[in-house]
Design brief:
Elements (H helix, E strand, L loop, with lengths): L13 H26 L5 E5 L4 E5 L2 H13 L2 H4 L6 H36 L10 H27 L2 H16 L1
GO molecular function: DNA-binding transcription factor activity, RNA polymerase II-specific; protein dimerization activity; RNA polymerase II cis-regulatory region sequence-specific DNA binding
Pfam family, one: SRF-TF
Keywords: Coiled coil, DNA-binding, Nucleus, Transcription, Transcription regulation
Length: about 180
């Protein structure tokens, strides 16, 4: 089940808006406390209350000032290293999602080629010309697997008998992880 879309707008009733602001500010400060404790980082927050026209700083105004001064002392390149605006954030996410899409396409091609091999081995008719790309992918996969197995056999033949058992066990442990 998906979440319902939230309509972001100004809370029209002034007392409700102030109460909501205070609750959210307290929640923000609590989350900052948790993240600084769990991650061992130094953080600060400065929140301006529009109704009182005053500033609240977390953990305290002095500590927030100290954190901001240390931040300003950093070189420009280091300072902006982990900053991102909405555009950079979206580009990063699009890049990550494109990578996931490419991996999914590759996996689907591999599964299609494997299905094609299984159909062929079961004696079904050879595939039509529309699946020629799958046959080429299958050929590449089979060549890679043959090469891997050949290299593995050569590697195992070069080891002493006691080392072969240890090597097999370490490989099995690596495959499980």
């Amino acid at each position: 089940m998906g979440k319902n879309k939230i309509k972001h707008e100004l809370i029209s009733h002034e007392p409700n808006r102030r109460v909501t602001f205070k609750k959210r500010k307290a929640s923000l400060f609590r989350k900052l406390t948790e993240i600084t404790t769990l991650c061992g980082i130094i953080a600060c927050a400065v929140v301006y209350d529009p109704s009182d026209s005053k500033m609240d700083a977390w953990p305290s105004p002095q500590e927030a000032f100290y954190v901001l001064e240390n931040f300003k002392k950093l070189p420009e390149q280091r300072r902006g290293q982990f900053m991102m605006d909405q555009k950079a954030f979206l580009k990063k996410n699009i890049s990550r999602l494109n990578g996931q899409l490419e991996r999914a396409r590759f996996k689907n091609q591999a599964l299609d080629a494997e299905l094609l091999l299984i159909e062929y081995l079961e004696g079904k008719n050879l595939p039509d010309s529309s699946r020629l790309g799958s046959l080429l992918t299958l050929e590449d996969q089979l060549a890679k697997k043959i090469s891997f197995i050949t290299n593995r056999i050569e590697f195992m033949e070069g080891l002493e008998p006691g080392k072969v058992d240890a090597e097999i066990n370490s490989d099995e442990m690596g495959d499980q992880g």
